[in-house]
Amino acid sequence: MVGKIPQLGSKCKISCDKFGNYVMSGPLPIHYSFWMKRRNFLLSMAGSTLGLTMAGRGVAQSGVVPLNISEIAPGIHLIRNAGANIVAATTPEGWTVVDSGASAAASMVSAALRERAATPVQVLFNTAWRETHTGGNEALGGQDIRILAHENTRLWMGADFEIAWEDRTHLPRPHSAQPNETFYTGGDIDVGGLKVRYDYLPQAHSDGDIYVHMPDHNVLVVGELLGVDSYPVCDYVTAGWIGGMLQANKNLLELTDNDTKVIAAYGAVHARATLQAHATMLEAVFQAVTDTYRSGQSLQEFIASRPTRDFDDRYGNPELFLTLVYRGAYGHVRELGRIV
């Protein structure tokens, strides 16, 4: 497999050998050079693929099934069964949408928005790079609208790369589907009187995660940063890790009160209590993987210790989660403390 990163120029290429190791050629920004070196090592730890994917976390939902649409606040709708959850707010100037769902559901989502307000989409946020969050970007307007995302989300969407634990190669998305307004921190916008705040939460699910907050309606969209009926994915290949996920959840809790409507990537509307329970689980597993590294235990020993035993009834099978947590922590051993 050989790919290019269009945003970095045609001389910049990523190639992947048969073992899943990345080989890069051409000039790269400092942050890319640093991350890819670390990623090569982490991928080399994988050995063979896990045989586990994110199919249960969005691919099944991306088929042609009826959308589940509910108004969660005046003029703000939650659209489910379209891949990752979509939040759409109507204003006199047009729609503001958070995530566009999977491509298979894009025509249904567009039709649903037109049925509720015959105004175009003005602003679209992508909270993550995955196709379940960005597959409808073109159908909702593409480059004719403002597509906001973290710069790293744009880079991943334009890259050709393999995620070994999924046993899947992700190809560059068309330019028309990519974000056209990127940022590194966060900001505020006003669309037809709708106030929206957004900010970056580093290295949690990936290195491009953001939240989107509509404070006047007390709606907080957190995407992949909250696992509801399954454990979250800390994708070390795209620079996610449990320490970042834990800190992200702590930051999100500071934005909520008991009346906040919290929208995860999947599932219904949740309350602050769900986010707090998630943070409690992450804290326990973070401490467990820290202790594992300090004692020099293997991945198999970490899983066998059952660090999620108190949470499995709520989140299900922990195997993929624990594997990603263990492998992702390797790139952060200094942050774990008292190891090197």
The stretches of 5 or more residues where confidence is low (pLDDT under 50) are 1-52, 55-63
Strand order of the largest sheet: 4-5-6-7-8-9-12
Strand content: 15-25%
Specify the biggest β-sheet.
7 strands, mixed
The number of helical elements comes to 10
CATH superfamily of one domain, by name, is Ribonuclease Z/Hydroxyacylglutathione hydrolase-like
**Total E-strand runs:** 18
Q: Quick one: overall form?
A: globular
**Structural class determined from secondary elements:** alpha+beta
Describe, in short, the structure shown.
This protein has 10 helices and 18 strands. The chain has 340 residues and is α+β, with helices and mostly antiparallel strands. It has a domain at 55-277: Ribonuclease Z/Hydroxyacylglutathione hydrolase-like (Metallo-beta-lactamase, Chain A, 4-Layer Sandwich).
Overview of the structural elements:
The chain is an alpha+beta fold and 340 residues long. It has a domain at 55-277: Ribonuclease Z/Hydroxyacylglutathione hydrolase-like (Metallo-beta-lactamase, Chain A, 4-Layer Sandwich), CATH 3.60.15. The chain is 29% helix and 24% strand. The strands form 4 sheets. The chain has a 7-stranded mixed beta sheet. It has a 6-stranded mixed beta sheet with strand order 13-14-15-16-17-18. Strands 1-2-3 form a 3-stranded antiparallel beta sheet, covered by helices on one side. Helix 5 (242-253) runs antiparallel to helix 6 and helix 6 (272-294) packs across helix 9 (319-329). The chain is globular, with a radius of gyration of 19 Å. Mean pLDDT is 86; it is low at 1-52 and 55-63.
